[in-house]
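Recap slide: Flagellar biosynthetic protein FlhB, sequence and predicted structure.
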Amino acid sequence: MAEESDQEKTEPASPQRLEKAREDGQVVQSRELGTFVVLMVGGATLWTMASGLGQTLSHIVRDGLQFNPGIARDSSYVMAQLSSQFFEAALALSPFLAVVVVATLASPLLLRGWLFSAKAFAPKFDRLNPLSGIKRMFSSQGLIELVKALAKAGLLGGVAVWLIWSNVGAIFSLSLESPSIAIQHMGNLIGKVFLLVSGTMIFVVVIDLPYQLWSHFKKLRMSKEEVRRENKESEGDPHLKAHIRAQQREVARRRMMSEIPSADVVVTNPTHYAVALKYSEGKMGAPRVVAKGADAVAARIRELAAEHSVPLLEAPPLARALFRHTELGDEIPATLYAAVAEVLAYVFQLRHFQQVGGAYPNAPTTLPVPPELDPLQAGIGSKA
């Protein structure tokens, strides 16, 4: 039962799933919304241009029906006349056609924004299977589309019949008007009826748009297993990430150990902590921590320091403070300058003794470490 519930697509699509679907060209589509926008924009434009467009087209028709017996058999004149009338009609209709084309291209922006996906143009040979086509025809989606088409045809047809019947008087009165006035009134009447019929499409859009949104997100639903797999792929395998972190720590530890031979001094706890410091006058603003560790790592730091003759100094409060309040590569805190200065002074004296001789320097025993920086004195809890 648990496996069956994991396979049921009950979870909403994740942002990654939605983005992948968008890249594949799977977005919310409402043909009714696009049709409504194109019809409304085209109807409004037709209504606005009806008067001037009717006059222009009537002028073209009137010129085309004129008969000149003298040149009736001149084929070149006939072709020139037809070309002239064609371009004149195209020029008159071009604003209307341009507005319709712009509306057609812009209507998808209302729902999903601009999208171009090459995958949507890829051939899908499974659609050539007649059995699949029959299955789609008799599916629930096909039934819904059929009901929607019938409802749309009935609604638009009913509104168109009602509008024509309501304006039947105006239609018959056109025969009593002069041709120029009749053409103007007919254009206005056609534009108004077309616009009102197109406006009824809003009822279809209001019903179709929520359904398309629901249907789209339903198709992209995910099972619990798919959600877990996606999270695993996006966040990474925990075991693999732990292995990578372990390798990173090992690389960082090796790099840290390689810095110990060049350190100036290693401050110890004496056994629990070890912190290696380095200072280059003129290159560093303050001494830096080049290595630090606790327990086994601290023991290895002390071993490498002894192998490379790096001085070791037991200063538990300073070692605890440096271990707690610094990271690798950090300069020491300003509040520890005085304590570290005494340590470096001792180291320089020790080098002078080793090179020249003389009195052996005394190691500092009491260093000015602020109590709030020492975890043991501050009550934070630390190894002594």
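Residues 31-65 form the longest helix (35 residues).
The CA atoms of residues 187 and 210 lie 36 Å apart.
(End of recap.)
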